[in-house]
């Protein structure tokens, strides 16, 4: 605490002393009269007690301020760590998006290759079928016109 607040009990002590001196004629009427020296002694004891209490409260305030500063520093460290983690998560998200895009491109390329293979396979099958199929002059598949020799034709008539 500032030095100005530490010296405050002194004006308070003066005010208390003035109040006690002003109240002394009223005390004179009581059974035991108090002397000014006794009154000043009592006031000094009260001022000392107030100064000790003020010192104790100042120490308590300093401890609380130190604890508050430590807590603020910890909070700032947590905020910085949270921001760092957020940046890492964003970077991981971007990496996942890039990997997903690459996987989609690879899938599309695979689908295109599979379609090309299917087309080539179909064309090859048709070409193979056409090459192995005999067509006679009559336009019939797998029929050959009987000739003079019976063993030369492939159809059994019977």
Percent of residues in helices comes to over 70%
- Indicate the proportion of strand residues: under 5%
Number of domains: 1
Q: Indicate the overall shape.
A: rod-shaped
The termini sit apart by 129 Å
Total DSSP E strands:
0
Unreliable stretches, pLDDT < 50, 5 or more residues? Answer: 3-8
Largest sheet: none
Instruction: Indicate the structural class.
Output: mainly alpha
Number of helical elements? 3
Radius of gyration: 56 Å
Mean pLDDT across every amino acid position: 78
The arrangement of helices and strands along the chain is HHH
Kindly describe this structure.
This protein is mainly alpha-helical and 158 residues long. The chain has one domain (3-152). Helix content is 77%, strand content 0%. The protein contains three helices and no strands. Helix 2 (9-28) runs antiparallel to helix 3.
Question: What does this entry show, briefly?
Answer:
The protein is built from three helices and no strands. The protein has about 160 residues and is mainly α. Residues about 5-10 have low confidence and may be disordered.
Helix/strand layout:
Blueprint: H1 3-6, H2 9-28, H3 36-132
List keywords for this structure.
158 residues; mainly alpha; 0% strand; disordered N terminus; 77% helix
